[in-house]
Automatic annotation (TrEMBL):
InterPro entries, alphabetized: Serpin_CS, Serpin_dom, Serpin_fam, Serpin_sf, Serpin_sf_1, Serpin_sf_2
Serpin domain boundaries: 44-407
Membership in a protein family: Belongs to the serpin family.
SMART domains, A to Z: SERPIN
Alphabetized UniProt keyword annotations: Signal
Molecular function via GO: serine-type endopeptidase inhibitor activity
Top-level lineage group: Bacteria
Any single Gene Ontology cellular-component annotation: extracellular space
Organism annotation: Alteripontixanthobacter maritimus
Residues of the signal peptide: 1-23
Residues forming coiled coils: none
Record field: transmembrane: none
Protein known as: Leukocyte elastase inhibitor
């Protein structure tokens, strides 16, 4: 990620130098402006920061869809520069059009077809001692399909945790039964803004065999692992040292899992920029499926990730700033102003012979600012660290993206 940012800044500087020289000197762009321009935006921006910080043997399972929907609920109540930063980070149009786009993306994914289940649920868990704007709650229901629950965070944190966890468990079909504990509940919270995204897809062509074979883990250790085998027509591509395969789900083959890994077998995944990921996606879309013997690990992976630190690195700072956050579209005029004190995502992925299950829950906690801050063959064998993407080929929505370097055995 650092290399990507450095390269982008260098390109921007070079482009500035090639313009016709002005008659009079003009101030050079500030370093802050250049860094701002170099920051990645869009669905995979957070992943690039997580990958930059993670060790080679750490898994990353992240849902851009879940994060965007949860921060859409924040955006709905944001105003001014706070809203603009969210729009920049999540590549949204300005103002109400940004909320409309996220609402449309949710409904566009509501009919995934035979062999695929996809549920995107939003919710507001509201403190019984704090009042949000009625218009905000109404718009959250109308645009984001949000449900509402009133809880007592301050006096009944255990009951509040049970309510939130029951919702997450239900909306992720049991894959994520717990996202908070009574101890982790922010007792002064005004609201928990939440999204749960659940995906379950049957392979268009199921894997027929499972064999024990070597898998190269991210720590450099090679260990026998369950590798699933299938022989079918798959789209595969090779480009500039990377190879990729596309595995469709369901009867319509609209949803797919793409696997990307280096041609050279290595324990440490090299950096793969967002532009290269998009290029591989485009190449796979154009590639003609051909007879392929495919080996893929049967595995599961999960992750619980704070989102504030990576989002700050991407330039999204104002929602988390007690003094500067502008969430006045959410807070009632008679109540204290709000800021986002916590934001995190819990995600889980399971890949097995007949298909895939994946779920994520993302929560942003809004707190009044008056509260003190808290602390022919061809063979495609996936037997080493790899990247994955679960995406909708019709809308381009990236539901899940991540890196698998140390898979856990499938337990289901």
């Amino acid at each position: 990620m650092r290399k990507i940012l450095t390269s982008c800044v260098a390109v921007l500087a070079l482009a500035a130098c090639t313009q016709n020289a002005p008659a009079q000197p003009t101030p050079a762009p500030s370093e802050t402006d250049e860094v701002q321009a170099a920051r990645p935006t869009g669905p995979l921006a957070v992943y690039t920061v997580l990958a930059d910080a993670a060790a080679a043997d750490e898994n990353i399972v992240y849902s851009p869809t879940s994060a965007a929907q949860a921060f859409g609920l924040v955006h709905l109540g944001a105003r001014g520069e706070t809203a603009a930063q969210i729009e920049q980070t999540f590549a949204l149009p300005a103002g109400a059009k940004g909320d409309a786009q996220l609402g449309h993306r949710r409904t566009a994914l509501s009919d995934p077809g035979v062999g695929v289940k996809l549920r995107i649920a939003n919710a507001l868990f509201l403190a019984d001692n704090y009042r949000l704007r009625d218009r905000y709650v109404a718009d959250a229901k109308a645009i984001y399909g949000a449900t509402t629950d009133t809880v007592n965070f301050k006096l009944r944190p255990a009951a509040a945790a049970r309510t939130i966890n029951a919702w997450a468990d239900r909306e992720t079909n049991g894959l994520i039964p717990q996202v908070v504990t009574p101890q982790s509940i922010v007792r002064d919270a005004a609201a928990y803004l939440a999204n749960a995204t659940y995906f379950e897809g049957d392979w268009s062509r199921a894997f027929t065999q499972v064999e024990r074979a070597p898998f190269l883990f991210g720590n450099g250790r090679e260990t026998t692992f369950d590798l699933m085998k299938a022989e079918a027509d798959y789209a595969t591509v090779i480009d500039n040292g990377w190879r990729a395969v596309r595995m469709p789900y369901g009867r319509m083959r609209r949803f797919v899992m793409d696997i990307m890994l280096p041609e050279e077998r290595t324990a440490k995944l090299p950096e793969l920029g967002v532009a290269r990921i998009a290029k591989l996606d485009s190449q796979l879309t154009k590639a003609k499926p051909a007879s392929t013997r495919l080996w893929l690990p049967r595995f599961e992976a999960d992750m619980e990730q704070d989102l504030i630190a990576p989002l700050r690195r991407l330039g999204l700072t104002l929602p988390f700033d007690r003094a500067a956050a502008d969430l006045t579209g959410m807070s009632h005029p008679a109540s204290a102003r709000l800021y986002i004190e916590k934001a995190f995502q819990v995600a889980k992925l399971q890949v097995f012979q007949t298909g895939t299950k994946a779920a994520a829950a993302t929560i942003a906690v809004a707190v009044p600012v008056s509260v003190p801050p808290p602390f022919t063959g061809r063979e495609f064998r996936v037997d080493q660290p790899f990247l994955f993407a679960i995406r909708d080929t019709q809308t381009g929505e990236i539901l899940f993206f991540g890196r698998i370097a140390s898979p856990d055995p499938y337990s289901g």
